[in-house]
Amino acid sequence: MGDVRLMKGNEVIAEAAIRCGCDGYFGYPITPQSEVMETLMIRKPQEETGMVVLQAESEVAAINMVYGGASCGKKVMTSSSSPGVSLKQEGITYLAGAELPALIVNIVRGGPGLGTIQPAQSDYFQAVKGGGHGDYKLIVLAPASVQEMNDFVDLSFELAFKYLNPAMILSDGVIGQMMEKVELSEYKPRWTAEEIEKISGSWATTGKTPGAQRRISTSLDLDSAKQEIFNHKLQAKYRAMEENEVRFEKIACDDAEYLFVAYGSSARICQKAVEQAREKGIKVGLLRPITLFPYPTKAIQEMLKNVKGILAVEMSAGQMVEDVRLAVNGKVPVEHFGRYGGIIPTPEEVVEALEQKILGK
Amino acid sequence: MTATTEINKIISKENMVYGKTSVLLDNEMHYCPGCTHGVIHKVIAEVIDEMGIQDKTIGISPVGCSVLAYNYLDIDWQQAAHGRAPALATATSRLMPEKYVFTYQGDGDLASIGCAEIIHACNRGENIVVFFVNNAIYGMTGGQMAPTTLEGQVTATTPYGRDCAVTGFPMKITEMIAMLPGTRFVTRQSAETPGAVRKLKKVVQKAFENTREKKGLSFIEIVSTCSSGWKLSPVKSNEWMKENMFPYYPLGTLKDE
Ligand SMILES: Cc1ncc(C[n+]2csc(CCOP(=O)(O)OP(=O)(O)O)c2C)c(N)n1
Ligand code: SF4
Ligand SMILES: [Mg+2]
């Protein structure tokens, strides 16, 4: 066993960033995620690894600092919560359009508007379907434990650099605030200038090498024909992600006649609901999407051989359920159960919803 | 002897007294005739060349007529969202402190939509150079009012002249920036005569030297013309600028520490 500790999800994001060789963090305080930057400020990584940590004047500035840092081939990130992530949407679409790798963490709280500071999962559409303008996709990872908050920081950077695309960790106030046992990652050194040149030398704006092609970080092409070709390239990239990067977990699915589909903290609640339902003799399993884009569409379809009905459980009025319905395409009933506005459902409520909405049919 | 061979003979190397810096690319500029952007580009390119910092300089282009500045200067560039160039420059300079980082921004970009980003980059004293091209109008989008548009000035969105009671007042952002302790060098220049261009070049050099010496933020406003937006000929534009802009935006150095 490596370095095992009892830590808050938000603190772990900060710790994992330092340990994975992150070069820069740019953020703006907002509940329930302020501990990310606070932890970094206490840890002073600038003295340890040379990582830059800066409190920006706004989320708009923070995400554009990320754009600048990413343009240099650096591993850079920001974190925020829902209202702040709304402000970041401009920068996020520019990152996608300029094909820049970066990590954005959203510790979701209830909305709309200023909403509440309590946890929610009501930013699914924003994260997965767009949020900003234009045809783009983020790689979206949904941790369901403090351990995954640790693991997904490094994984996000790995995927972001593999596909030259921004990645998002879509978590919520439950996972951000709760304390759990976590095995922290080993330290990885930050990339040297030479390593950056090797990894990102075709595009990183590090100063023009005499005689070599200069590099321009831009999302602009005024020529529509070229812009369409570029969009084809982006779409091909998203299809490759769908082919190669789908991640999910199945719990008690082998003999399942019914299925919960839930991610993040809702998946944790559903895990308990599976136990409670099985005690009552209901053979229900849980499919937990880990990547929300690319979505585990095929995995859901494969479950349809034995499953008679699906309940999508989310702390929203019904967002991810649309992707479940698209996958199922009417073959079995799909219903949604959600509490929202900052309310967290109990496992009992989830079992009751299964009985009423699916078994009752 | 044909005319071309004769011209080629005249412009032979021995006869040359002035050449275009190679940092300025041969791409045809999209700027309107008489536009100040082209002159400012040339000055920046010459200074980068003369200081030998081409391989260490990263430019951040704005949204505005100079969005395509990266087509003209042979350096690495980042193209920012409207108004956000100072945020990109902040991260670039902090993550690569040995580089020369500059933003190049219009008045709409810097003083309106990007007001927060520029004020805070200046307040933090980022080790960058800011070029602020004040032509008192939104050139790119077809000549609408800018924060720097003068009282009474006719634009596409102030067709009866800017009424300050309704729109607020022409903004002296450079004066505001000079007040911030984070800035080291704040100056207002122009580029309408050879003399003005020579002066401009001196301050540009000083600004990049400040970056080299890690002195912090240098801010150069260039009071400029936009003949298309102003609907005047290039010559008339220069006259209008001298008559109307210079009194409100007086040239000179506001701060040099
Ligand atoms: C978010 C956003 N809002 C508006 C625009 C449209 N727009 C493009 S350039 C511009 C004004 C530029 O004016 P200025 O900065 O003064 O530059 P100039 O063209 O005069 O050099 C505007 C409003 C945009 N591209 N993005
Ligand atoms: S519209 Fe104005 S600022 Fe733009 S290129 Fe023409 S003269 Fe220059
Ligand atoms: Mg302008």
What is the beta-strand fraction of chain A?
Answer: 15-25%
The bound ligands are: thiamine diphosphate, iron/sulfur cluster, magnesium ion
Quote the beta fraction of chain B.
15-25%
Mass-distribution shape of chain A: globular
What does this protein look like?
The complex is a heterodimer of chains A (361) and B (257). Chain A has helices at 9-19, 35-43, 45-48, 59-71, 82-97, 124-129, 146-163, 173-177, 193-200, 224-244, 264-279, 297-303, 321-328, 347-359, and strands at residues 3-8, 24-27, 52-55, 76-80, 102-108, 139-141, 166-172, 179-184, 216-217, 248-251, 258-261, 284-289, 291-293, 309-313, 334-337. Chain A is α/β, with parallel strands linked by helices and 361 residues long. The N and C termini of chain A lie far apart (48 Å). The model of chain A has no long low-confidence stretch (mean pLDDT 97). Chain B has a 7-stranded mixed sheet, with helices on both faces. Chain B has a single domain, classed as Thiamin diphosphate (ThDP)-binding fold, Pyr/PP domains (Rossmann fold), CATH 3.40.50.970. The radius of gyration of chain B is 18 Å and the shape is globular. The termini of chain B are far apart. With 257 residues, chain B is α/β, with parallel strands linked by helices. The mean pLDDT of chain B is 96. Chain B contains 10 helices and 7 strands. In chain B, α2 (36-51) crosses α8 (194-212) and α4 (107-113) packs across α5 (115-124). Classes of the chains: A alpha/beta (361), B alpha/beta (257). The interface between A and B is medium-sized, with 38 and 32 residues. The complex binds thiamine diphosphate (TPP), iron/sulfur cluster and magnesium ion. Chain A: It holds the Pfam family PFOR_II.
